[in-house]
Structure formats: C-alpha cells, structure tokens
Amino acid sequence: MNNQPNKQLQVNGGCLCGAVRYRIEGELVDAGYCHCRLCQCSSGAPVLAWLTVQQEALTIVQGKPKAYKSSAHYQRKFCSQCGTQLIFRKTTRPRTVDITIASLDKPAAVVPEYHIWTDSRIPWFDTNDTLCRYADAGPDVD
Ligand SMILES: [Zn+2]
Ligand SMILES: [Zn+2]
Prior knowledge:
The chain is mainly beta. Helices cover about 5% and strands about 40% of the residues. The protein is built from one helix and ten strands, in the order ββαββββββββ. The structure holds zinc ion (ZN) (2 copies). One zinc ion (ZN) binds near residues 34, 36 and 117.
C-alpha cells in the first residue's frame, strides 16, 4: 500500500498543550485513514489519519504520554494533560508504531494512501479521493 517508497521522515510533533513532544527519524512504512470505532471513540472525530514507522524511528523528546489498552493487543498513548492522541502500538511483537499525522508540526508532510475499516465509516463523513478502501484492517496488518 506504500506509494511513497523509501520516503525518509525527519519530522517533529506533539500534543495540543506542548507537554509531550516527539521526533520521527526514519523511513515511512505507510500512512492511511482509519475509520474504526476505536479510533472514532478515542478521538471524538469521524476518522484518524495514521503514519507508520519502525519502532526505533520514534523518540519521545519531552514528557511521557499515558497509555490506554484499547483492545487485547493494542495500546493508545495520549497526553494526560490535554488528551491529544499521539501513538498506537501493538503490545505483542512490536516492530512498528503508528503516530497520528495531525499531531505533526507540519501534517502536510505525510499523505494518507488508503482507508481501512470502512465498514464503520460514518455515512455523512467521506473524503474526495480514489485511494484503496478496505472494509477491514487491510492486507498490511503487522
Ligand atoms: Zn498535552
Ligand atoms: Zn482505527
């Protein structure tokens, strides 16, 4: 699904209040929209856009995000002061980590390439694109 092969990221981001700051240095694995109910409920938004990098590419440079176990093998990390959701990772066999694209200082730097979990897309919300759409987690599940 990666249409931006070998794209090297050197980007910074963080939460709304500034307590948590992170840096990403490494190759972009992929990026996409997730319409799942867990992303919707945990953000209060109709969709979340995520980028994926190798675990080593992400460094938390300031603060300590709080972790919430949102399903059996996954956790979401957010700022405990302002609530911005920043990170999604598998707790078993973690190789990669997902970061919310909108929390980047310059979110235009990473462009979503696909949609997953469109089965739970809210009917009044859609994006005007021709990207691949998957009813479930899609073919590239880690
Ligand atoms: Zn914050
Ligand atoms: Zn999701």
